Amino acid sequence: MVNVDLNKNKQKWKGGLGIALSALVPLALVGIMVVWLLGSGGNLLGTPQIPFDELSASKIEFHPNEIQVKVRNTGPDDLTITSVLVNGAIMDNVEINPGSILGRLDTATIIVPYWWEEAKPYVISIYTADAFVFNFEAPAALQTPTVSWDYIRTFMLMGTFVGIIPVFLGFLWLPILRKVGMKYLSALVALTVGVLAFLGMDTILEGFELAATVAGVFRGITMLVTGIVLGYFGIIAIESILKKAGGRIAGSGLLLSYMISLGIGIHNMGEGLAIGSAFILGEAALGSLLIIGFTVHNVTEGIAILAPGVNRKIGWGHLLAMGAIAGVPTIAGGMIGGFAYSPVLATLFFGIATGAILQVIAECWSLIRGDGLVQKIQAAPNWIGLTVGFALMYATALFVTG
Amino acid sequence: MKKRLWIFGAVVIMVLLIISIFLFSPVSKQTGAASDAEMPKAGPLDPASFDYGNKSTGPNGQTVKEFEIVADDRTMEIADGVEMAVWTFNGTVPGPTIRVTEGDYVKIKFINKSKMPHTIHLHGIHPAKADGTFETVAPGGTYIYEFTAELPGLYLFHCHQEPVAEHINQGMYGTFIIDPKTPRPPAKELTMVMNSYDIDFDGAANEFYTVNGKAFEFMKNPIELKVGEPVRIYLVNMTEIDPLNSFHIHGNMFNYYNNGTMPEPDQITDNVILGQGQRGIIEFTYKYPGQYLFHAHQSEFSSLGWKGIFNVTE
Question: Is there a binding annotation on residue B295?
């Protein structure tokens, strides 16, 4: 036991030093161990020193008469790039910046002068000095967007069509929703849950796909799960801040609708990210069919946003604000995906979108009439609403190609 | 309230439409789809067509043969209903059959109207400057290959721009014949270029094999031959990816002159195997009338388009 009657200042100072020491000593010991393991203790377990190279490509860019590949050494040791091939032919005049020797987690940009053609597939292969071969594929080459007004306009247009217009089109059903809502509000909320459940599934599956593309060292699945937790509690935090602050949103009785817009907005940002990054990865030419598909698909989102609030007075300002919250992030997503794509951040992001949608579903759930899960599902308006919501999303998703 | 909402909706949609029209105009300019639709069509090679060039006499009395070869980008129906983007020499795949006589001074003017850089690399004896390897002809550029034709035989030419495999896959090759001063005996003469198409550009496998450019062309339009008529085929193998191709005829045996450089046949057979870039002269005469198949003896290739019929009549 510590004697509290001793000189307090001295005690405090001593305590501070003790804590600092107890924090630093283990760090120092770990440091010494790492140095020793890297040096003379390296062969502690007597394991053979087999080289194991791992190289990841984050971007394949197509510029006029030039292909650029951004690679990162995601393996345990240094690696040296010895040859760069395009479609099975060794290229000369290849420039590797900053150099062909990459330390652990170092990145390099490989610049290959090449007369590539639009829409053709290209496989960039990289040989390393330890005789490892890495193949990176661009299924259909497309000029990589550089930040320019033309591309900003393209992404704005894409976002407007995919994110903003459909949500507002969905809002136009408000009079019909009101009619239904007077009698079957619970069914409408169930419909919203159906829509959100589909979006949530869609988002998490895409997240898993993305996580699989992330280099092992960055732990894609962990990133995804972290994102889900962040998204889930993020929505709770934002909601409680809004409630505390009061103001127009909290006072309108439309807080849940706003939260749904926010959840959908984050999801739509992910959609924008996916389309924008398709540009970068040379995976798809952004066809009008894709835009049509997302447009039809996203009309349902407008209905989902309004459903819980149809019995309230909804002013123009609120409609505009909710539509913007749900739709505008698509544009931002497109630009981030197109200009600054990173699979790691994208995975984290899809996690956040999933978490946000989960939380919004949880909130809607309490508005559905009935006490427990069974009672809620058994009521005809509820399961019909739920099924219709999910079926609507499924049917409109058929318009989305790829 | 209802009315207000509809007015609101209409206003929002109008505003968005106006914004999107403003946004759309520069975007449509970026797409190159329209120009693709206007791409000229390429055709297969007529086996009986030979380009003898423009003949004149040089200052030292040497015969001069001048040719013009234009490279451009086209699309071609390489099998029924299958269109492929090709790069052509004089608008056909395979390219023209250029024919000169031993001792001629050959001048080939190459005009590159394609959007890719190309060359013409001729096989045979010539100075390095006429080899078409290092002198890349940029889009819009021209180059003249000049040399004296030596050693009669069957040759070929192709684009040697890197990546060569891609340029060959897309159709940049042709036949080059140097006739001996004493002509070969008269015969019905045909050029047959065995080729392949990797239409998905995956570099792993060909989707079509043909002779003279279009799959199954001579199944639908058989080559007409006469009983007792000597036939001479200039056979060139320009297959990509697969190292070997073969030529087999039914109901007959033929004399085979590997590369056409020696006066005596190398073998008498009904089936020859040629490596990439290999060629040879084939001579035969049909004894009996009827329809005879000719095809690659790799069944896979014949099933994918390299198959035809000789219709032999009295």
Answer: no
Where does a domain end: A116, A138, A160?
A: A138
A161 touches chain B (CB under 8 A): yes
- C-alpha torsion sign, points A333, A335, A338, A342: negative
- Which CATH number covers residue A107? 2.60.40.10
Name the residue facing B9 among A86, A89, A171 (closest C-beta).
Answer: A171
- Judge contact between B288 and B306, C-beta under 8 A: no
Show the CA angle centred on residue B63, arms to residues B57 and B65, nearest 5°: 100
Tens of pLDDT, residue by residue over A247-293, are 766 666 788 888 889 988 988 888 888 777 776 655 555 555 566 67
Query: Which amino acid is present at A104?
Result: R
Nearest CA to CA, how far is B273 from chain A (Å)? 26
- Nearest neighbour of B5 by CB, restricted to A164, A165, A174: A174
Domain shared by A298 and A358, yes or no:
yes
The tens digit of pLDDT for each residue in A26-69 reads 888 888 888 887 776 666 666 666 778 888 887 888 889 999 99
The minimum CA-CA distance between A223 and chain B, rounded to whole Å, is 34
Hey, are the CB atoms on A160 and B117 less than 8 Å from each other?
Answer: no
Segment (H or E) for B177: strand B173-179
Q: Do A170 and A109 belong to one domain? A: no
Give the phi and the psi of residue A246 in degrees, each rounded to 5. 70, -140
In tens, the pLDDT along B141-164 reads 999 999 999 999 999 999 999 899
Domain final position from A91, A106, A138: A138
Domain of residue A76: give its range: 55-138
Query: In chain A, which residue's Cα lies nearest the Cα of B3?
Result: A175
Whether A33 maps to a domain, the answer reads no
